[in-house]
Design a protein that fits this description.
This protein is 30% helix and 20% strand. It is an alpha/beta fold. The protein has two domains: 151 residues, Periplasmic binding protein-like II (D-Maltodextrin-Binding Protein, domain 2, 3-Layer(aba) Sandwich), CATH 3.40.190; 103 residues, Periplasmic binding protein-like II (D-Maltodextrin-Binding Protein, domain 2). The strands form two sheets. Strands 1, 4, 5, 6, 7, 8, 9, 10, 11 and 12 form a ten-stranded mixed β-sheet that branches. The protein has a two-stranded antiparallel sheet with strand order 2-3. Helix 4 packs antiparallel against helix 10. The longest helix has 13 residues. 45% of the residues are buried. The N terminus is likely disordered.
Length: 292
């Protein structure tokens, strides 16, 4: 994948992976990658790489949905949970996972080779956010004529900016910065504040952020996943977890945890307002019944 979905993932692309990928390949060739005691920093501890201030994904207080999923996995593994916090900007993968300070990145887009990905544990899309009663609640694509002339917020450099340009919506668009320090700034919060104040008519955010901030707003904002785009990049993505290239047993263990706990994972995501999609782009509105 050459373009990522949201700035937290897009910025990961520019991290330098060579410093650890070569070492991990060598370990795999030496035949020691199948042993979890060798693969993991500490086999008795679930060590997670996270951003200290990047809600709704994670924060230092453990409030994010990735924190909650990490807590679920730690319980299932009967392990202590520990974090390595670092802002998800340039160098995140190298400083955390690549430096063996932690063993898993809890959210990573499927299809990128910067890390080795697990099976996906959710599927979602960029979404259009609008006020109830704005007349934009039934808009399902950026090609809709109702958006013409509207002031629409967009995080610069993210994939839907291309779709907006093709739909002729950039003339009145309000861009928000892609490259930010999450410790002191949030493009998503700034966009939501502008939407609620009337500075913009609608906004486009990565689905988990759109759902989270829309749910927090009073009154709640309307969120529409953009699954019907016919021009520009598709805006739907699968998200898994990221591990080091050689950590095959660890990846398999995480895949089993995802499969066995998918209903609980879905419920956590839904509680945070994440607009979950099935493989047919239909919304998942309730966690699946657990297998007996």
């Amino acid at each position: 994948m050459t373009i990522f979905l949201h700035h937290r993932f897009l910025i990961m692309l520019v991290a330098v992976a060579a410093t650890f990928l070569g070492r991990d390949v060598a370990r795999a060739q030496n035949g020691d990658a199948g042993d979890l005691s060798i693969e993991l920093v500490d086999p008795k501890v679930l060590r997670v790489c996270e951003d200290p201030r990047n809600m709704p994904f994670s924060n230092e207080k453990g409030d994010g949905f990735e924190n909650k999923i990490a807590e679920l996995f730690a319980t299932k593994l009967s392990k202590k949970l520990d974090y390595t916090f670092f802002p998800q900007a340039t160098g995140f993968v190298r400083v955390t996972l690549g430096s063996h300070r932690c063993d898993v990145i809890m959210g990573f887009p499927q299809g990128d080779d910067l890390v080795q990905g697990t099976n996906p544990y959710y599927r979602t899309a960029y979404a259009l956010i609008a006020k109830a009663g704005s007349g934009l609640e039934d808009v399902t694509t950026l090609e809709d004529e109702k958006l013409k002339g509207k002031h629409i917020g967009i995080v610069a450099g993210t994939p839907p900016a291309t779709n907006m340009a093709l739909a002729g919506l950039m003339a009145n668009a309000k861009p928000y910065p892609l490259m930010i320090d999450t410790r002191v700034d949030s493009s998503a919060e700034a966009m939501i504040n502008d939407l609620t104040s009337g500075t913009i008519d609608a906004g486009i955010l990565w689905g988990p952020m759109a759902g989270f901030y829309a749910k927090k707003s009073t009154p709640q904002l309307h969120v529409t996943p953009l699954v019907k785009e016919t021009s520009g990049p598709k805006l739907v993505y699968r998200i898994g977890m990221g591990v080091r290239a050689a950590d095959q047993n660890w990846k398999r263990q995480l895949n089993r945890l995802i499969q066995e706990n998918q209903a609980d994972i879905n419920q956590i995501l839904l509680d945070f307002g994440v607009p979950l999609l099935d493989e047919s782009d239909h919304p998942i509105v309730a966690a699946a019944t657990k297998a007996q």
